[in-house]
């Protein structure tokens, strides 16, 4: 809400500097988001009168003018606008002026003629939105006076919270100012000079559904002359951010800003027999609204209609056919109260949320229907002439009395933790117009006190003596329960007056953090050199189709399965973010591509995040770790050649991660069927805890060249992994077991095993482990060799095998027996030992 | 051989050996002399072999001379050894000199994402005050995300949370972590001190300070007698822990349907320190979180009696905290994941 200081001052005295007032308003809950100084940028801009306007001797499109400022020599000024004529008063920017946007005005030469300044458009001054021509001021505007003196103002941009619809008005904000300064609020005049016939002879109103329109007040003004509003009205509306249109329309907008009461005006001649009907739309009805859109009306839409059909969408937008135009002579003023929910739904339905509908949505006090009608009628008559018919049409003239809200002064202090005596509470409430009454009746009587309302109401019985009754002004529809009064007291008192203490209440029981295991994984991976990223959960349908696992690996024990149909956003911001992801690698691939586009080729990224699916109409979420290695894993340098990351690096990361998590060394199984991954460079991974539960499970492999080519060639060669880890969704790290190091030396034997083309290192290692016997401590591949003197398809795999026991030093023959058993098993399996 | 011959031979051996030692060019030459002269089959032993022919009275004399000679030779050997060793070490060190200005072999350095790190840090601070971390679903139902938080359907306050809806009836992407308040209250009994971090979604155009996906951390403390003053004290401590000592803070009225009274919590501008600058909208303050006393309706939906229990809730954006703390000026950077942005957060 834009509130000009000059307008506020009409209703309340203000001595505070604008900054101080802004701070006080903010501390009262009316947050001032900005202070605009209108006119600050008009230094050296004064009012001048055009004496002559002639063609520029050297330029067809320019005019040469002489301008008087009232005193001194007339100035010669070159101007490009076409709307100027002698006798007009205009804003003149003199040399040295600095206009909005830091535009400096100097004495210049334009096409051979000296120009001593510039004539300004309203747009150049940010005074009006009109940039097409010079701003023509009223003929009685004083000459030579700085523009800032005439039109300068301070405008507060105030964030009015949704519960304070009453403060979406200058009068409402003036009440808040009064709460700060302690001064009184002056209300505008609601006096209407009536003449001529009774309004009932001109205007009749039938409200069909009183629940949707609890009150409709109408007035009739005859003989108006539609034209521009007085200049000061236009300026004031502009300052408040409303575009002036005509005196009649401006009057309705003026009342909306001033009182917060949206007013609609109809051309009386366009309403059949002056008979308005407030009803919901029938099926098939249509209305061309003010914005010239032909709209289909659904049966939920509340209408103002006449016998012929719809005239306006109630509270939201008028119809083009009954709009007040230059030809209008009779004006119907509509000042109604509508059901907030109905207005909100209709405004959303037609995507027509206006200043008017915003105010209706928040609910309006009943009294405003009458006040708004009177004020609007008076302003129309004042600005557009005409006579106001006697009386009002009013469908519900009874105005309810004030509401009373019971509260307990002791409870206020108990919630706030502040020592706020009863008398102080009474004084504070008085500052916002809330009177306080003591409950009637016997001292030991019990009364009902509402502590919760709305969809979960609650009333308690309390001793009457412990309560007070707040007499709530009709405009404060937000004050209904005790907690509302507590908040009112807190804000008027000021939060800085509430002490700052540390809680002295009981502590909750210990509960392990669900972040604990995630943090271990994050810190481990960062330690291994990977960089954590956070990518979007909302992705495009394309992305989802490309990056969904064709056969999702089983999850770790206790973790959610990748499951369900994709979940689609029904009102997406864009197609790029319209569905929820089911995987993490897609976002990682996109991050690789983005960084490579920006010249960073070597990337090691990970994300711990969720996938989402819909299982039997219920949402399902699961946690995963994803990582991507692209380009060199070890940073290349002068003493280390660049080497692109491969599956081995990814397995190294997983091996180390398993070690960190206390899982037994992971098993890898070739995976040739995953569409996103290279069929010859992908595996599933599975690691178990000592007790056999699955601690880690997932897929890892090089991106399929075809998948990379189809998505973005920059993704080529990326190693991708998506891993389920037991406890990622909220577990604690496992506890390591202690080890007593053996006092006896271990014995190492190296075996070079030659195998044929189809054999894998993993199978050979499995054969060694299966045949080595109880003395085996570890098996480690340390060399792979192919070439002469081996056969063409042969490879030699060199393993370092370590034997030992905690009980004694091994005898040579024990070791030899174990090696012999291994050799025999290798030969059985089709390999041979190379000596 | 008689005594005199042996004594003379010993003298000659000493003279020649000492000469050879001082002439030895390197440690191997010394080792050779050592073996030749003092070894089991060396010259000294050879001379002393003749001792058997001497009279028993003379033998101790020869022994004494031989020991003197041996001592002199050993001392000379040791001295020359030290001399040569020092030279050889000097020579080795010179030979092994490298260009120490060559760059090191770089380690790969990882980093931790600032959004998650901010959440973690917020959690750590509140854990010190007895808060425990909970999590709640990202795909929420309208009931928990709005209605149980005292935001009925078609309530104007819904404008504060532009919502992304999903194709599961009655469900949406949670617009805030506040529905976690309901879930925690329904699951736990007071005393409750809960912290709820997580991802949230809004129907919001992206700019330097808005995104459609972001994180939030919700806090909830409920028990008998938990006051607004307690909330002030706790949040002041939080600001001190997060931004350091001596930063001014300010509580002012805010508005949330699920708290009453509602407050906004400001910290003095970390850029200008108060006078006002573009970063703080010239106000001198930066809003870091919204909070308030839990609304009685919300307590009831949480299964708690609002006459007996009271407490406060707060919610903050870890990205915003991170931006203030690290001088980041554009929210979009957090989910863009340019590694140059991520690198400093090690
Ligand atoms: Zn600042």
What would you say about this model in short?
The complex is a heterodimer of chains A (835) and B (346). Chain A is an alpha+beta fold and 835 residues long.
How does the SSE layout of this entry go?
The complex is a heterodimer of chains A (835) and B (346).
Chain A: E1 2-4, H1 5-9, H2 18-27, E2 31-38, E3 45-56, E4 59-68, E5 75-79, E6 89-93, E7 98-99, E8 103-104, E9 108-110, E10 113-115, E11 118-119, H3 147-151, E12 153-159, H4 170-181, E13 194-198, H5 199-202, E14 204-207, E15 215-222, H6 231-239, H7 247-259, E16 264-267, E17 275-280, E18 286-288, E19 294-296, E20 302-306, E21 309-313, E22 317-318, E23 331-337, H8 340-349, H9 355-361, H10 367-384, E24 387-390, E25 393-394, E26 403-407, H11 409-416, H12 422-431, E27 435-437, E28 446-452, E29 458-463, E30 468-472, H13 482-493, H14 516-528, E31 531-532, E32 538-539, H15 541-546, E33 579-580, H16 585-597, E34 603-615, E35 618-630, H17 647-661, E36 667-670, E37 677-688, E38 694-703, H18 705-711, E39 719-725, E40 747-755, H19 761-771, E41 776-785, E42 795-803, H20 812-828, E43 832-834
Parallel strand pairs in A: 13-24, 14-17, 31-34
Antiparallel strand pairs in A: 1-12, 2-12, 3-4, 3-6, 4-5, 6-11, 7-8, 9-10, 15-23, 15-24, 15-25, 16-23, 17-20, 18-19, 20-21, 21-22, 26-30, 27-30, 28-29, 32-33, 34-35, 35-39, 36-37, 37-38, 38-39, 40-42, 40-43, 41-42
Chain B: H1 3-23, H2 27-38, H3 43-49, H4 59-95, H5 114-127, E1 132-133, E2 139-141, H6 142-145, E3 171-173, H7 179-187, E4 192-201, E5 213-223, H8 228-243, E6 249-253, E7 259-268, E8 285-294, H9 296-301, E9 310-316, H10 318-326, H11 333-336, H12 339-342
Parallel strand pairs in B: 1-4
Antiparallel strand pairs in B: 2-3, 4-5, 5-9, 6-7, 7-8, 8-9
The structure holds zinc ion.
